[in-house]
Amino acid sequence: MKTAVVTDSTAYIPKEMLDKWNIYMVPLNIIFGTEVYREEIDIKWKEFYEEVKTKNLPTTSQPPVGQFVELFEMLAKDYDAVISIHLSSGISGTYQGAVTASSMVEGIKVFPYDSEISCMAQGLYVLEAAEWASRGEAPEAILARLEELKKTTRAYFMVDDLSHLQRGGRLSSAQAIIGSLLQVKPLLHFENKVIVPFEKIRTRKKAMKRIVDLLGEDALRGGSYRGVIIHANREKEAEEWRAELEALYPNVEFLISYFGAVIGTHLGEGAMGMCWMKK
Question: Per its UniProt record, what PROSITE patterns does this chain match (predicted)?
């Protein structure tokens, strides 16, 4: 069976990797006033962080259902099935858009998959699915593999300014106000598909150290892991962090990724995070 793999722009998979694995990407939108940009196509992460320095914070929107329908119908010409992997349904309607579109197309079986997370953690699922699909594995086997990976996936991140999350409705006002007053740098994570505080920590340095400790709890048990350092316009800091982590945990293969325009709108510049999963 020939299976296509689809994802959305918030997986932040580099274009060369999308091309290498024949992954199809549907962009979310960034809206500055009346100007609409397709994430990762019309606006890249570096451009986004420059734009927000001089403009009001943008809004974001999910892809229209028709965009999914059009893509799935095109794929039906060459594929038997589609696995469509998207950011958590708890923070976006993108996954539900794929579900709706899947019932509107004929000639191809569509398997929408809720990653329950976002950014390159979602991207690692996509890359694994694409590798399995390239070997001709059945969609059901690929989905079972993703569920297996999900059991060992961990992701934690911290933000410099909680107001972005609060304004975007991704964190309650009370939590944002308390965090701002106490200058707390809370560790956040996904739980039941939504973003919630994991621990409240007073400084950025301590928050990042806590992430390292959490990684160590898994990595020191043995086995090989994939890890991704994710930054919001803090490329140098991410590189330095990787060098430190590679010395501590040689059994973890580290990549560096970024919080792109859509997720960056809700987290703000300066956010840092890390995800990892067992190979």
Answer: DEGV (PS51482)
